[in-house]
Amino acid sequence: MKPIKYSTEDRIHVAVDCIIFGFDGQELKALLIHRKMDPGLGVWSLMGGFVKIDESLDEAAVRILHSLTGLDNIYMEQLHSYGAVHRDIGGRVISVAYFALINIEDYEEQVLDEHDARWVPLNELPDLIFDHKQMVQDAHQRLRQKVANHPIGFALLPEKFTLPQLLSLYEAIYDAPIDKRNFSRKMLSLGILKKLAEKEKSSSRKGAFFYVFDQEKYEKLSNEGLSFI
Amino acid sequence: MKPIKYSTEDRIHVAVDCIIFGFDGQELKALLIHRKMDPGLGVWSLMGGFVKIDESLDEAAVRILHSLTGLDNIYMEQLHSYGAVHRDIGGRVISVAYFALINIEDYEEQVLDEHDARWVPLNELPDLIFDHKQMVQDAHQRLRQKVANHPIGFALLPEKFTLPQLLSLYEAIYDAPIDKRNFSRKMLSLGILKKLAEKEKSSSRKGAFFYVFDQEKYEKLSNEGLSFI
DNA sequence: CCAAAAGTGTTATAGATACACCCATGC
DNA sequence: GCATGGGTGTATCTATAACACTTTTGG
Asked: Rounded mean pLDDT of B210-218?
């Protein structure tokens, strides 16, 4: 770290807040906690923390996500920075929001209790502290845009997933029904899904074939912009 | 301002840097200055400044834009926050980048000299300080996405503009030729341009009709997403 | 044999693309 | 009358949207 050469005035707390999305097969959910510090102790909140002087914004986001979920190598993207003067009643804090997509099955029940955290469906959001509800809504909006053109939805599903599961995910994200014939034709025509011989048998007698996302094929194709959905 | 309740550790300089776009009828340009402070005095740079403790990020962006251009009520949008630990050699500084679209004719030559500023075509960018070149490239990319779906390109043109001018603008933004018949059909079919009786006569003998962007019509239509171009 | 979910094909429509000629005017 | 840029129409193709029946199999 180089010595600080700028004046020490005008330095500001910078926080990172994480909108963590999960999908349980039915609904799109966000991981919320009860805030563990004053002001606002106990109020519903996103997971967050201050950026340390010797870590980048991205590193802070990874650290904060890890501290709540125990997970690494998670899809994460910077959303927006929130900088209203009085957005945090504890003092001047600028917050850089990140959103993350995790496979909800990877998330341990026990960690939920340790952090007093809960998965909450997006259409049943309680009041959140500060501007966190706005952040969740902005993240949801961004997710909708993004999954339409980028293969990131898979991060919300297990590694092996079925087309009906993928369809349900998109319907949950858009909160709208999607025609399954058009959907599967389009998804498969992108050429980035690898069909497995194995079937998922728990949700129907017939069983649905598993697929995996083929990262390599995708990178070959995606010299910019396939269109999903 | 409420008293600071959080510890004074971990406070960080937060800067705003502005990518200011202009269009001279031919090329898309960015407004660059020679940096006026150490470290990096004299190096090509974006216009920027530290966020003050009692102003929001958006306010800081407006202030900084105004200080360089004298302009108010300018289209401006937050782009991204840049937070690598050593991105600024003068100390730990997180930068929130904003991009602005201005009508280059509104910008006074004299202000250029006062600030040692210059309009530089995007494909002739010199080396810029820190990560500013990345910021310009990210902003250009975002502008491309945005003008495809939102009526913000008009902010780069005079209030009254012709279809050929608008076409040139889009061609400059995408750095690609666009068919003028398809373009004007599509633009006009959106129903957000008002044709004036008056013609622009300086660039052709026949003259091209002026249009103005019809904000009201747009707001009526745009309960989400027209598709431009 | 039946209930439940998986899988599959065709038609209609809208939007995108490609393409070339006439028009109006100042000189 | 001619050079210059402005303006316009049509045909093709591709992508999307709408829509319903057959298949599989565990019980």
From this structure: 93
Q: Which two tokens stand for residue B183?
A: 């373009």
Domains of chain B (ranges plus CATH)?
A: 13-147 (3.90.79.10), 151-224 (1.10.10.10)
Nearest to B92 among A10, A53, A94 (CB): A53
The pLDDT of residue B1 is above 50: no
Taking the C-alpha atoms of residue A70 and residue A53, their distance in angstroms, rounded to an integer, is 23
* Of B20, B18, B47, B21, nearest in space to B169 by CA: B21
Q: Tell me, what's the pLDDT at B226?
A: 65
pLDDT number for residue A224: 52
**DSSP β-bridge partners for residue A120:** A30
- List, for chain A, all residue ranges whose pLDDT scores fall below the cut of 50: 1-3
Q: pTM, whole model, 2 decimals? A: 0.94
Picking from B172, B167, B157, the residue whose alpha carbon sits closest to that of residue B228 is: B167
Residues 34-63 of B with CB under 8 A from A: 38-39, 50-58, 60
Q: Which residues contact B11 (CB under 8 A, 6 or more apart)?
A: A11, A12, A13, A14
